[in-house]
Amino acid sequence: MRTIPRALVIGDPIAHSLSPLLHQTWLKQTKINGRYEKKNIAYKDLSKKLKALFQDDGFVGANITLPHKRAALQIADEVTTRAEKTGSANLLYKKNNKIIADNTDIAGFITPLLKRRSGQQLKQASVLVFGAGGVARAVLIALQNADVQQITLCNRSNERAEKLVESLDQKTGITNLQTLDWKNRNKPKGTVDLVVNASSAGMTGVESLDVNLDFCQKEALVYDLVYKPLLTPFILQASSKNLKVIDGLEMLISQARPCFKVFFGIEPPKDTFVRNKLESYLIKENDGSE
Question: Residues 219-244: what's their mean pLDDT?
Answer without folding.
Answer: 96
